[in-house]
Amino acid sequence: MNNDNITMIIPTIPKDYTRIKRDYGLYFDCLPVTEIVYIGPAELERVVMDDVAGSGFEDRVRFINENELIPYGEFVEAMNARIRSEGYEVGGNSKLGWYYQQFLKMTYATICSGEYYLIWDSDTVPLRKISLFDPNCKPYLDTKPEYNPGYFRTIRNLFGFDKAIKQSFIAEHMLIDKSLMLEMIQEISGLSYAGKTYYEKILYAIDIDNMKLGFSEFETFGTWIMNRFPDSYVIREWKSMRRANLFVDSNDLTDADIKWMGQDYDSASFESYHPLIPDLAEMFRNKEYRRNVTAKEMYDAVVSSGIFGEYKDGMIKDGDIYVPA
After folding, report:
1. Which of 172, 199, 217, 286 could pair covalently with 102 via S-S, beta carbons 3.0-4.6 A apart?
2. Which residues in 13-153 belong to E strands, given as ranges?
3. Residue ranges of the chain assigned to CATH 3.90.550
4. What is the DSSP secondary structure assignment for residue 281, as one 8-state letter?
């Protein structure tokens, strides 16, 4: 097994890339990856290459046009055909890009040169050194608290599997065993659902009333692994600060911030729909506060107060589902 040649892939678009400052030294110091590959539309290439220029990491960061993996126009046609097949009119679908990026992550397995590749969310920053394999060289499958029943409706339609573990496999990243991803894709491709490609068959496996949040590549792969190859990975709890930009702008992160947060968390996510809250930012920067309270204690106190919604077992209610706090 070769776990010394791991590529990290980050599907994104220009506006999401530029929203977060990239510290490539931090990425390569914390993550045991040899290169970072951004996957996106043609206009993303110049944005990435201009940003990495002069960083010293130019030879370790590259770009792949998304259309080389799945032509975007073909994907849009497939999604529209799926919707029309149920007699619905095709309207503005804000989830097109969301589904498309998931299938790009899966399809990367077809061109990956190594045994593994690491999927990493574009809005997430590592905070401390992270191992991807246990002492016996078995890969980790990281988990967090979350439950979206819509994802499991589709998983049952595809494979007949129910939820395999209490936790969720949605953890802002996932280490993929290329051969197993290809095997899962092959299994899906052989199903009787309409469509020629595996992703078309997934679209037809999603119930039409479940299209808003009907599929998760992380939840699907993790559940499939636990049923087909349960000994191939080691389950590990992932610790992340999900709503970090309520407290600090990612562009203003200092080494001291990263050190303090990294005592409790593996990573921090800066999601665009969580705006900075001035009172929380002031608390975050308070040096006296930091001497007496850990980052996790601060974060837990804020989210458990209920100011963002009903809080239960590390999750916040968002509509009809609970999402990680």
Report:
1. 217
2. 35-40, 61-65, 116-120, 124-126, 140-143
3. 7-237
4. H
